C-alpha cells in the first residue's frame, strides 16, 4: 500500500496589505509606516514639550522642527552614523526616537555640533598648542 503525505497548504490566510512596507526612493529604503508615525510623534512631542529656556523666534522654532525631521529621516532609514544597524528602523523604535527628538531637539542639535567640532579638531589639529 502506497501512502502519500497530506499537505495543509490553505491553512493560513494571507493578511491584506494596503501598500508596500518599504519604498525605495533615490536609493534610500524608507519604511513608510515607521517614518510617518515617528514624524507625527516628533511633531506632537514638540507641541507638548515644555518651553525651551532659550527664547527662539517662531521662524527658529520652525527651522529647528524641520532640521529634526531631517535628522529623524536619516535615523529611521538607517543612514545616520552611530545610530542603529544601517538598516531601516522598526516602527516602535522609530516612534520612541521621534518622541525623544521632539522633547530634546535643541540639545540633540548642540550635541551633534560638539561632535563635529571635536572631529574637525582631531582632523585638522587644534589652533591652540598644548
UniProtKB/TrEMBL annotation:
UniProt keyword terms in alphabetical order: Membrane, Transmembrane, Transmembrane helix
Regions crossing the membrane: 30-49, 61-80, 92-112
Protein name: Uncharacterized protein
UniProt source species: Novosphingobium silvae
Amino acid at each position: 500500500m502506497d501512502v502519500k503525505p497530506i499537505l495543509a497548504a490553505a491553512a493560513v490566510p494571507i493578511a491584506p496589505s494596503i501598500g508596500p512596507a518599504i519604498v525605495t526612493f533615490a536609493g534610500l529604503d524608507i519604511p513608510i509606516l515607521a517614518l510617518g508615525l515617528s514624524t507625527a510623534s516628533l511633531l506632537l512631542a514638540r507641541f507638548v514639550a515644555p518651553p525651551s529656556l532659550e527664547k527662539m523666534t517662531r521662524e527658529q522654532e520652525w527651522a529647528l522642527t524641520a532640521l529634526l525631521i531631517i535628522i529623524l529621516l536619516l535615523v529611521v532609514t538607517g543612514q545616520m552614523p552611530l545610530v542603529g544597524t544601517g538598516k531601516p528602523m522598526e516602527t516602535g523604535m522609530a516612534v520612541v526616537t521621534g518622541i525623544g527628538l521632539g522633547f530634546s531637539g535643541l540639545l540633540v542639535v548642540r550635541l551633534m555640533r560638539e561632535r563635529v567640532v571635536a572631529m574637525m579638531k582631531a582632523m585638522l589639529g587644534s589652533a591652540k598648542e598644548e
